[in-house]
Design goal:
By secondary structure, this protein is of the alpha/beta class. The protein has helices spanning 13-25, 36-45, 62-72, 87-95, 108-140, 149-161, 178-188, 209-214, 231-234, 250-262, 288-293, 299-305, 322-336, 346-354, 360-374, 387-390, 409-427, 432-438, 443-453; strands spanning 5-9, 29-33, 50-54, 77-82, 100-103, 168-171, 196-200, 215-216, 228-229, 239-243, 264-265, 274-275, 279-284, 308-311, 343-344, 379-380.
Length: 463
Amino acid sequence: MPDARILVVDDEKSMREFLAIMLKKEGYDVIVADGGDSAIDVLRREQVDLVVTDVRMPTTDGLSVLKAAKDLSPNTAVLVITAFASTETAVEAMKLGAYDYITKPFKLDEIKLIVANALERKRLRDENLYLKRQLETQRRFESIIGKSPNLLEVLDTVRKIAESHSTVMITGESGTGKELIAQAIHQQSNRRDKPFISVNCGAIPETLIESEFFGHVKGAFTGAVANKVGLFSAADAGTLFLDEITEVPQTLQVKLLRAIQEREIRRVGEAKDIKVDVRLIAASNRDLEQAVQEGNLREDLFYRLNVIPIHLPALRERREDIPLLVDHFIHKFSSELDKEVRRVSPEAMSLLEQHQWQGNIRELENVIERAIVLGSGELLGVEALPENVRRPRVVRDVEPDFPDDGLDLEATLDRIEQQYLRLALDRTGGVQTRAAELLHMTFRQFRYKVQKHGLGRRGDRLD
């Protein structure tokens, strides 16, 4: 392993210089230290591949150098040399992680061979560790499909920020995969073995959201029949993902800000604070600066959450990923639905690539699932695609009809709004959360308008 860096430690100048000259002739980069203390200082500052150290030295001996090397750089190999061989010292050195133990006087060829073997073993271990990490990385990103430059840029950011504890704000249209990116950040971090908890803030009733976030004690309010662990406590040492963050009520945003800053919460009905260690990731499909201007998001909370911003591109901005996503969904639903669909026809793929995908990846997934359910055979053709994909509507500017005697604008807008709410509910089979996404509204906004127009039906569902 030429060019490897070796630290030679010996209080005897002649031995130190002899080893340094010999190792340099072999092509190694050599650093020397005249004792244990200076060797440990080097290990704190420098990255070395191998330490060759004498055992008996004043103040700090070779075994202390060995311990420090293993603490500071566990993959660094250590070779212990001494003129005072003893079984006890040899056993202790090997227990502490020394690669080998040789005694003075030693043959030149012997130490050259041991050094070469130690460095080769380290190289193999480093290579295995690198390959293992690469495999883990690939597995953590396996649910994120795509090769477009803007998506790869997002994934590169995920790799860079994963190990930090900074809060992250993910923005992007509905259906772009914000939760998948949050999961990828968690899986890349050292919190990967701890909980990842996801919550849609817009789906929690305003009267219960504080209890959901922070928990409550028995008797804190009517209906609190037992203690409740909140989301922050449940995610302790892990990651908490808050989707639709702008839907958090203003009254709770102050407490959320304090939880982020102080890393402590207070359960409803309790007087003491509880320390929590949570990595917070927030997300929204709205323009956050506009939300701040409109008073829906506190400015100080926005800046606290927006430490590391990540914006996900819409599917129409990464069309080169559509064939990969189509192939992924075909394999997924063919397996789940016990179908034998293998691919789509070139004509169908062309239509899929041209579609605007206002619902992004989620809309594409639904289209492929529907096509596989209703289709037959190994090939999905144009006929398997829904009407809006096969024959995209051309939107033309139409001059509105304006009666001579004027009109009630508010009533007209209410009627149009009611029509689109009903169409969205019909399109999604009464699933209100999906209907809200089709109309690019938050669930809370959608629910309010449904109640306003009296459109709620007994069969309607949240998801």
